[in-house]
Write a structure and sequence with these properties.
Length: about 150
């Protein structure tokens, strides 16, 4: 069941803050998923620019994206997986690079196999997903040479 379905099935979604302001979609997702989309209390997109060169945070964002995908039915954003792959290659950690590329591709393929693509964007057609697919091939070559 996707996020919108969950929102509409909730008897009284708390879409407003006590001040009367509307809650942002990220806040609603955090409520519905028990904070699955949060890393140290912050939404993953808030860390994207500030911590893009911090492998630890990018890996935490990957985990949060996968949990959100599972709980809210939203496709995990490829950005964090691509950043982990880039940072892993810089460290010559090709095994980790391969693992994160494969993990993302498998998760996305599983998502679309289960939920289909009717009425939603297919991230597999996007440039970041395609970059991860290409990166995987090269990372496997580099891993093979390193062994």
């Amino acid at each position: 069941m996707n996020l919108l379905s969950k929102l509409f099935r909730t008897k009284s979604p708390q879409v407003h803050k006590p001040s009367g302001e509307s809650k942002a979609s990220g806040e609603l997702i955090a409520e519905l998923t028990g904070g699955a989309n949060l890393v140290e209390g912050r939404r993953t997109w808030e860390l994207a620019e500030q911590r893009k060169d911090d492998l630890h945070y990018m890996k935490e964002c990957c985990e949060a994206e996968l949990k959100t995908m599972e709980k809210a039915g939203l496709v995990a954003a490829p950005y964090y997986f691509e950043r982990v792959a880039i940072l892993s290659r810089k460290e010559k950690n090709y095994e980790q690079e391969v693992a994160y590329c494969e993990r993302y591709i498998a998760a996305v393929e599983s998502y679309y196999r289960t939920d289909g693509t009717e009425g939603i964007a297919d991230v597999r057609k996007g440039p970041r997903f395609q970059a991860i697919v290409k990166r995987l091939k090269k990372a496997k070559e580099l891993l093979g040479r390193a062994e």
